[in-house]
Amino acid sequence: MLERDISELEDLLKTLSACMLRNTSAKAAADMALWDLYGQLCGLPVYKLLGGGRTRLETDLTISVNEPEEMARDALEAARRGYDTLKIKVGSRPELDLERLRQVRAAVGPGVRIRIDANQGWLPRQAVRLLNQMQDQGLELELVEQPVAAGDLQGLKYVTDRSPIPVLADESVFSPLDALQIMQQRAADMVNIKLMKCGGIYHALKIVSAAEVYGMECMIGCMLEAKVSVNAAVHLACAKSAITRIDLDGPVLCGEDPVDGGAVFSGKDIFVSDAPGLGIRGVRGVRYL
């Protein structure tokens, strides 16, 4: 792509997508750079290029899987910091999951939205049994993320068809084709888009378009990422109404923020930048080899 004109954005993105198999995180980095340059060329922030609607998002905060008492303390601290949506990790030692959620719910009370992420930790029948128990005990869970192994679409559909709690596919969805298969089979109620999984904004837009066709809502998520990459996800989420749930807490989990420009992360509130492109001006202290 060297010496190509950034105005050829569509062809550049296709070239990037076809240049090697998988390597989605590396492709996502290049994809973000291309969108940033194109936005600067047009004099517009990327979220406005994509259709621009919202300028502010609210993220959840992840509570790591630990002993029930520790998770309850962490959840209460997050609620005191103003987070009203928590993503609770479960799936490690499933026999403890009910108690973990009982204690978390008791700690934060009914005013905090709780979504859970099993990270592929359950078997299909086990997942259905646990989710029904959670429902019966009045834990008021918003959704369950990736209850079974990523490659087990039959098992995922088994859970989705029988769960009283909506199911969100995460590790099962890397490519637009993965998302399309889940939507066509109704193997999940929602899908989680992560730019590092799908290869960047270019492929994320395809997943969003499929979701719009099939009437399915999306979450925008992130890995353990800092601000530069999560900032690109903010632009996408602000542009697309099919993205109804936000899980972009990576930057607030970082000990420091050396990035100048881009989105502002202030607790649960995220404010997109109106600067051209993705709005990043530089990274303090970075050393280029």
TrEMBL record:
Transmembrane segments: none annotated. Its EC number is 5.1.1.20. Its cofactor is Mg(2+). GO terms for molecular function: L-Ala-D/L-Glu epimerase activity; metal ion binding. Pfam families: MR_MLE_C (PF13378), MR_MLE_N (PF02746). Belongs to the mandelate racemase/muconate lactonizing enzyme family. This is L-Ala-D/L-Glu epimerase. The keyword Isomerase applies. CDD domains: L-Ala-DL-Glu_epimerase (cd03319). Keywords: Isomerase, Magnesium, Metal-binding. Residues 68-166 form the Mandelate racemase/muconate lactonizing enzyme C-terminal domain. The keyword Nucleotide-binding does not apply. Coiled coil: none annotated. It is an enzyme of class 5 (isomerase). Gene3D superfamilies: Enolase-like C-terminal domain, Enolase-like, N-terminal domain. It comes from bioreactor metagenome.
